[in-house]
Amino acid sequence: MSRSIWDERYGERGWAFGTEPNDFLREVADRIPTGEVLCLGEGEGRNAVFLAERGCRVTAVDASSVGLDKAARFAAARSVDITTVHADLADYAIEPDAWDGVVSIFCHLPQPVRQRVHRQIVSGLRPAGVVVLEGYTPDQLKYGTGGPPVADLLYTAETVYGDFAGLELEMAREMVREVHEGRYHNGESAVVQVLARKR
Questions:
Q1: I need a labelling partner for 32 at 20 to 30 A (CA). Which of 92, 130, 167, 168 fits?
Q2: 181: Cα separation from own chain's centroid
Q3: Are 64 and 4 in contact (CB under 8 A)?
Q4: pTM for the whole thing?
Q5: By the 8 A CB rule, do 11 and 66 touch?
């Protein structure tokens, strides 16, 4: 089996997306209950480790074992524990009523997979649990500063809102902002940011 693009990227020297948490996640971290948190497409672990340092019990899921190995080493270096799960999100089942928070940061999925995963997030959240999502919008194709170069893999506030029907939207905004996260996210970027809560 050939190495995936993600195994190759995470196998490079240093950190593909840096070691600091995503800016939006840092902004809204106080709104995430301290409990069981699921990080999807977590890669090298920067967001998972940040949340673990805040007292959350974090499970990081990614399709790259290379990324998850780095995440585990990063967590150990920062003296926190995270659980890593090597799985493709196309096959991964989010357990119902099991999570106080779900984090999806630049986790771009094909539409059928995205819809299924996002609907599972809704059922997977416990009451008062939140989902935090940041992704690139189709306008990002004009910037080329990160993310997939395929419109079908990009998100809008409207599509995410539809996927998360049944949750209370506390924040849903599209904007252009500076993103500086390692080698692969660097520069002016068109993003959507969503925080939604289960009542």
A1: 92
A2: 13
A3: yes
A4: 0.96
A5: yes
For the record, the structure tokens of 181 come out as 């996260």
Q: How far apart are the first and last CA of the chain?
A: 44
Q: What is the mean pLDDT of the chain?
A: 96
pLDDT attached to residue 71? 98
Decide: helix, strand or coil at residue 23: helix
Ramachandran area for residue 146 (φ above 0: left; ψ -120 to 50: alpha; else beta): left
Q: Which residues contact 80 (CB under 8 A, 6 or more apart)?
A: 49, 52, 53
| Distance (Å, whole) CA 90 – CA 77 | 31
List of residues 6+ apart from 2 with CB closer than 8 A: none
Rounded CA gap, 145 and 190, in Å? 9
The amino acid at 75? A
pLDDT at 1 (0 to 100): 34
CATH 3.40.50.150 correct for 5-197 = yes
Q: Residue 184 has which token pair?
A: 């692969």
Beta bridge partners of 136: 191
Q: How far apart are CA 125 and CA 48, in angstroms?
A: 17
